[in-house]
Amino acid sequence: MFVVNLFLIIFLIICLLFLVRLFLHRTALIYVLKKWVEGIDDRIHVHQQFRVPELNENGQENQLYRKVLFYVNSLASIEDSDYTNLFSGKESNDIVLSLEDDQIVHDTFLGARVLWVNKIEKIHRSFVLKIKKKDKRRILKPYLQHIHTISDDIEQRRKELKLHMNNNGKWRSVPFNHPSNFDTIVVHIDLKNKVKSDLENFVKSKQYYHKLGRVWRRSYLLYGPSGTGKSSFIAAIANFLSYDVYNFDLSQVSDDDNLNLLLFQTTSKSLIVVEDLDCYISQKSRTGISPSGLLNFMDGILCSSCSDERIMIFTMNSKEGIDFDLLRPGRIDVHIYFPLCDFNSFKCLASNYLGVKEHKLFPQVEEIFQGGATMSPAEIGELMLVNRSSPSRALKSVIAALQANGRGSGSGGGGNVATRLRDSVESSPSPSSATEGGGGAAWKGTVPKEFRKLYGLLLLKSCNRPESLDHDSDMIER
Ligand SMILES: Nc1ncnc2c1ncn2[C@@H]1O[C@H](COP(=O)(O)OP(=O)(O)OP(=O)(O)O)[C@@H](O)[C@H]1O
Ligand SMILES: [Mg+2]
């Protein structure tokens, strides 16, 4: 009997606790309780306060204030503050939170709880940081360092990206808003992940490179046939890192000095890109860049500061006939091969362009691929794009093009197909497809030629040469 009563009492206590908890949550009394506990905790500890004013003693902007502002507004706990301002962000459906005056935001760092208060006195704003005295020595320095890193990262991601192009020895810039990203490019998932983590590791490795006495630079060679996504991949990298792009057109560079000057003028956190390096090297009438000038440029020694990070990306259709010195380890760190389509990449394109994951024509397409026919993703993508209103028609046109390609050169080189494809895009009767299919056409009036060259939707190479296809390696680190 006693045991039964005991169980009954325990059961009633549990129910009661549950109801109290429910009541506290429903009425938000839990927050009152939490604040009360925090208030007691604040009172029994001695705090030290640090003020970060908006302006310094000369009335100039205090850079630290700006960083703290970015940092505090990015804290998740800002949502718990009593008053928060809401603004629309960069994208139309973005909402940005910003702390109201005299509001408190909590943050934790290395296990210590700190407070930020957004003060306004007369017209001067400041942030006040409150840290418990016992934690100050341990966390203040690393915490401020942490704020620097996070706010730099936020600023970097917010800035408008630019594409810089050299013309007559000088840089010209246009906004860079290429939509390509790692989700839209059809390459093997492992390759994407490897490249992403390689980039992320690189940008975090300043100290490591410094310790090794090496220039903080990473270079990539993207090679493969025309229309396989090399330029789109560069744009995806720029968007992934939020880096500007400096596109070096070597044919516009007069000599080594000009090349060095242009390199010197590039800024940190940017991609230095040389497209079609193989074409430039094979040109009979090359500009005045000497072979050693080119090698020094690729080594990136003459950047404005060797402690700033540099990512260099070179593209080629083929590595065949290229001097080994140019591609040696240390000069080119990572080689990435961009192949023509196989059945798997075709299926990814069909899913992206047509929203089709399975189709009765797929077995036929697979068979044709197995027979050795192939085309570039650009060619297949364009056929799908112009026929996107009817997936069956799109797939039939891909089948016809693949069959014609297989009957033709058999190399998959795509020159003929590309020309036919371009004709089909340009003569498309649908107004929407005429604009989109000729993405370049939509840009023609507004965007410089080099821009279209770099990121055009379907550009035919002037130097179609047979490609070396080492299919076994997608990404090779040297
Ligand atoms: N792997 C791919 N995944 C998705 N789309 C692709 C892929 N490859 C090419 N495309 C599409 O084809 C078009 C041309 O691609 P891109 O310019 O990136 O090719 P490229 O390899 O740089 O060609 P080129 O050697 O002629 O400069 C782009 O609009 C892109 O959307
Ligand atoms: Mg390209």
Automatic annotation (TrEMBL):
It catalyses: ATP + H2O = ADP + phosphate + H(+). GO terms for biological process: response to stress. Residues 408-444 are annotated as: Disordered. It comes from the Eukaryota. SMART domains: AAA. The keyword Magnesium applies. The chain crosses the membrane at residues 6-24. This is P-loop containing nucleoside triphosphate hydrolase superfamily protein.
